[in-house]
Structure prediction request, 210 residues.
Amino acid sequence: MKLGKFITLEGIDGAGKSTQLDFLATVLCARGVTVTVTREPGGTPLGERLRDLLLDQSTAMHPETEALLMFAARREHLDKVIIPALNNGNWVISDRFTDASFAYQGGGRGLNWEKLVVLEKWVQDTLQPDLTFYFDVPVELGRKRVSALKTLDRFEQEQQDFFQRVRDAYLTRARQFPARIQIIDARQSVDEVNAAVEKTLDRIFMQASL
Ligand code: TYD
Prediction:
């Protein structure tokens, strides 16, 4: 039985979700919650090997292969990490989950949305995050933050129009699931985004316990 809560963080590259992930984990730990922090693609030994292939600039693949590998890694992640942790009463925070497949493979690569719905149902059945933070930034700002930070991986090297489609798909997904996906304006300073995250966390889980 699922006892813990499942929280996911989403956004285009450069939205600042890694900083917020650390903040969220710290806030929850301070409240006495046992937290399992993980990420996608990855989170298991096999998933991390798939991640290496998926992010490697020199590994070209068909967009459907890319989607299938994302969901293969996810199947393993659910089985080995997410479901056992939730059953154990831990709260799971995942840096990305299925909304990223809709945004990047559906929006960015233009894959058929219905095929992704089939994969989602196949791999997750009815399991969905309890809460998803979507950190929204304009594409230009995300691009600026990423290129200042590191060498670019296979996704980060994509062009502006790719990220515009990714952002649009995230927003479509957020409109489709407004109770689960909370949009955070990530143009703000780190402190302001932290405050918005904590407020949203309280609002959602206080409502749930009423
Ligand atoms: P990211 O989470 O941004 O890691 P880092 O902060 O270390 O760069 O990198 C993962 C990349 O994988 C990101 O560009 C989005 C992409 N991705 C997909 O395309 N589909 C998916 O389903 C997932 C989970 C990630």
